[in-house]
């Protein structure tokens, strides 16, 4: 029998947590908002009107949460300076919480 305190890395805990309906709704708002995430400027997303076609559609399956977070935080890490995707986190365009809300919304898509 195990007893004691166990430490779980933050990334693992984030992957284990279940998204709330409020976070999913907030993520949808951010992804569709022209004043916030504006994901639909470049990506097609289920339910979006006038979605862009510059980048791949945002539809399941998605990479693991850590990889998707890194992509939204700063796509230059994967694609170098030639990417047109803004570094949302690195440039303080979105907070960590907002990025996680967008991810919660994307992972809720079926």
Automatic annotation (TrEMBL):
Annotated Pfam families: Cytochrom_C
A single GO molecular function term of this UniProt record: metal ion binding
Keywords of the record: Heme, Iron, Metal-binding
Highest rank taxon of the organism: Bacteria
UniProt domain Cytochrome c: residue ranges: 22-110
Stored InterPro entries: Cyt_c-like_dom (IPR009056), Cyt_c-like_dom_sf (IPR036909), Thiosulf_SoxX (IPR030999)
Protein name in UniProt: Sulfur oxidation c-type cytochrome SoxX
Source species: Acidihalobacter aeolianus
